[in-house]
Design a protein that fits this description.
This protein is α/β, with parallel strands linked by helices. Helix content is 41%, strand content 15%. It has 26 helices and 20 strands. Strands 3-2-1-4-7-9-8-10-13 form a 9-stranded mixed sheet, with helices on both faces. The protein has a 3-stranded antiparallel sheet with strand order 19-14-20. The chain has a two-stranded antiparallel ribbon with strand order 5-6. Strand 2, helix 14 and strand 3 form a beta-alpha-beta unit. Helix 7 runs antiparallel to helix 14. The radius of gyration is 35 Å and the shape is elongated. The two termini are 67 Å apart. The mean pLDDT is 90.
């Protein structure tokens, strides 16, 4: 039995036949639909003749449309069928008209498969290949690739899709991470997601559901089902997904259609649409969630709809807050939580668990009162953030940045209530034998299984899962109270200090703007003189006394203009009074982020007043914020090397330089 790598290489060789009419970045348009089509062809091969015969018998009968599809599906033994009198081998019998016959073959599928090929937009590619004279050759080569389920299991087929999609996206220089996640990362996420539920899965009556709202080609959902099978689970796991990339959706929908993965058996568990504006599973709840939302993708196109839903409050998905428009990751998180099952054991409702891959940005981006901080505040204060696992860098095909798995749930174990666990797995990796895009590292998956083409590796996935499951403090695992991540952003003010002085230039400038105050300004000039006064409070009182007998009344705008023209900040001047206190200087305004567990007044007295004795806190401006500074919590101080060692190394380097110079000059 050929490995998935061998089959991927074989299909890749076929793709090279497209060179000329197609540029390499365009290969995906042809190869993905043909791989899917050949897979369907092989899956249906055993019952194909019976389906064609039954369809011929039903011609002209009253049973048509969905009813006929249902009947022919029964004959096919699958949730889909093909009633056309063609398969890949028969298509080769008429090379001149193969384009027409191939289209007839695709049109012969049941409606659920035809819809998938509509998203592949394959009809245009058939004609393009036919005009270029390569269609027959490509179909002939695919006819020789055996993708029958007896030879290529579903799991292996998923790996073929993963391999091909990665290669296609590298050619196109696109974001491979938009489509799939490395296999070992998915395995780790699934293990973390199901860690406490193995006993539940052994109950034959248990029926569980899972949603991936950014499912790409469906690799995460497939891995979750593989977990259930490999653990001998009696329970059923029905998986659902949504994606907005047409080819990725079509690949996922076709793969899932070949499996019994939904409740109704109609194969509509994978839907096409924008998760933010077109929720295809509105009103549904799920037991599990798994996702790798695209990193740093903006939601400007969806902004109007998202903001509208945010404003309706808790009945909307995005009530907790709106992140910056250039990164919608935390919108996916809110979307998933909105579909959490309630916790009501009496009604057999046991809550939900979610595993999500994020970049570092959702951990700390945005200050107190901002959208990201408010979302973190909501998740943590509702006691739904169970753990965050930091992954090694250079793990993903499209980026070398650090990534994190968030475990979010509304059914924490008793010991975890009110707590958040941070697990540091950044040093838990093995090097790739060959880099794949930006992916140079992987998490070891243990000994290779029979038929797997990878080498034996340490079982680092199990190591990380144990680290998480032990829920104990160590160098790689730290346990925190929820409010350890919260802080109060306190506004610290310092008094404004103004010096008053009237000069000829300033006087002319003021009168240009307020000529109606000429007499008053002349009187003020005569009374207060031209020397600087270091107390604006006293100067203002003198001006008010001067103007009172004449009954002159200035508008607030006039007073504001007068002060802006004739005063300047001066650290040696007196504080400007306001009410019972002092007017703050906006330029000296500062902020202190004070941890929730720290007494604010004591902190202020200890950390601020010794340095700024006349400062005060404006507690009316307090804001509550949450951030998770992973690096700070796992920081390890490395003492600098002794100066003697550094001096010796510098001396050695200097001697080496001098030796080389002598060789050049001699």
């Amino acid at each position: 039995m050929a490995s998935h790598t061998d089959l991927s290489n074989l299909i890749w060789e076929i793709a090279n036949l497209l060179r000329g009419p197609y540029r390499p970045p365009q290969y995906e348009r042809v190869m993905l639909p043909l791989v899917v089509l050949r897979r369907f062809d092989c899956v249906l091969a055993d019952t194909k003749e019976a389906v064609v015969a039954e369809a011929k018998k039903r011609e002209g009968s009253k049973i048509q449309g969905d009813a006929l599809d249902s009947k022919l599906n029964q004959v096919a033994g699958h949730r889909f069928h093909n009633r056309a009198p063609y398969d890949f081998k028969k298509l080769l019998g008429d090379p001149d008209n193969i384009n027409q016959h191939l289209q007839t073959y695709i049109n012969g599928f049941s409606a659920n498969v035809r819809k998938i090929f509509d998203y592949f937009e394959f009809t245009a590619e058939i004609e393009r290949m036919h005009e270029a004279g390569i269609l027959f050759l490509i179909v002939k080569e695919f006819a020789a690739v055996d993708l029958h389920p007896n030879k290529v299991k579903n799991d292996q087929m998923g790996l073929i899709f993963e391999n091909l999609i990665r290669r296609f996206n590298e050619l196109a220089n696109e974001t491979a991470g938009d489509h799939f996640t490395p296999r070992e990362v998915i395995t780790l996420m699934v293990d973390l997601l199901f860690i406490e539920d193995d006993a539940l899965f052994q109950q034959s009556a248990a029926v569980k559901t899972m949603l991936d709202p950014a499912c790409g080609t469906g690799g995460m959902l497939a891995e979750a089902q593989s977990y259930m099978r490999s653990h001998g689970a009696a329970a059923k796991l029905y998986v659902y997904g949504q994606d907005y990339n047409k080819r990725a959706f079509a690949t996922a929908a076709s793969d899932m259609l070949m499996k019994q993965v939904d409740h109704n058996g109609h194969g509509e568990n994978v839907q096409f649409g924008d998760t933010f504006t077109d929720d295809k599973f509105e009103g549904l709840k799920f037991d599990y969630f798994i996702a790798n939302p695209p990193f740093g993708v903006d939601w400007k196109k969806q902004q109007t709809e998202v903001v509208t839903e945010h404003k309706i409050g808790k009945s909307g998905r995005f009530h907790a807050g709106l992140p910056r428009v250039n990164d919608g990751s935390l919108l996916f998180l809110q979307h998933m939580v909105s579909k959490f099952e309630d916790v009501a054991p009496a009604k057999q409702k046991y809550g939900s668990r979610a595993a999500i891959v994020f970049s570092g940005s959702p951990l700390f981006t945005g200050g107190a009162g901002g959208g990201e901080s408010n979302i973190r505040k909501w998740i943590i204060e509702e006691d739904m953030l169970e753990a965050i696992i930091a992954l090694p860098e250079q793990m993903f095909y499209n980026t070398g940045i650090g990534t994190y798995i968030w475990i979010v749930t509304n059914r924490k174990a008793k010991a975890r209530k009110g707590k958040v666990q941070l697990v540091d797995a950044r040093d838990t990796w093995v090097p790739m034998r060959r880099s794949q895009g930006d992916k140079r590292r992987k998490i070891g998956e243990g000994p290779a299984l029979p038929g797997d083409d990878r080498a034996d590796e340490p079982d680092q996935i199990a190591e990380i899962v144990r680290r998480y499951g032990q829920f104990a403090a160590s160098d790689q695992s730290k346990i925190f109270d929820n409010n350890d991540f919260g802080y109060t952003r306190v506004t610290v003010e310092q008094p404004l200090r103004l010096r008053y002085q009237m000069t000829v230039e300033d006087k002319a400038r003021f009168l240009d703007a307020a000529p109606h105050l000429l007499d008053d300004v002349q009187a003020i000039d005569k009374e207060l003189g031209r020397e600087p006064l270091m107390d604006w409070n006293a100067a203002l009182k003198a001006i008010e006394r001067l103007l009172k007998p004449s009954g002159s009344k200035w508008r607030a705008a006039d007073v504001k203009l007068f002060r802006s023209v004739f005063t300047a900040k001066d650290a040696g001047a007196e504080k400007v009074r306001k009410g019972k206190g002092f007017e703050p200087d906006p330029d000296l305004r500062d902020f202190e982020n004070i941890p929730l567990k720290v007494d604010i007044d004591a902190f202020f007295a200890r950390e601020v007043l010794p340095h700024v004795p006349d400062a005060w806190m404006d507690r009316t401006k307090d804001k509550l914020g949450y951030e998770i500074n992973f690096n700070r919590h796992f920081y390890k101080f490395t003492p600098p090397r002794p100066l003697a060692v550094i001096d010796a190394e510098l001396k050695q380097a200097e001697e080496e330089i001098m030796r080389l110079l002598r060789e050049v000059t001699e």
